[in-house]
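Justification of computing resources. Each target in the renewal requires a structure prediction run like the one illustrated here; the chain below, 111 residues long, is used simply to show the kind of job we budget for.
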Amino acid sequence: MAREKPYEIVYTRETKQHFRVIPKKHHSAIFDEIEERLSRDPLVPDMNKREMRSGTLPRHLGIDVWRLRLGLNNAFRALYRVDEEERLVEVLAIGVKINNRYFFGGEEWVV
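Resulting structure tokens:
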């Protein structure tokens, strides 16, 4: 049986801006973990990956958005959308969770 082609991971311009407020020492680990965890099964929920409820997201992200917890102690969050037909994962936001507050690009988001 042939193995399926991995999903391509792309980052929005906004996501690239979000990295500016995350210490550089975490960047490669975040990129590596996103690649590892989302290139094969981005739509299979697990302990660190789930689909977000539409009412909990900023409107500009749209619908069908998933969340990935990652990094040391799951301190970071990646929000992403998947195009199954194109086998593409679009990372929409990268941020940090501090207590029960989420910060993306230095701004607090209610998620």
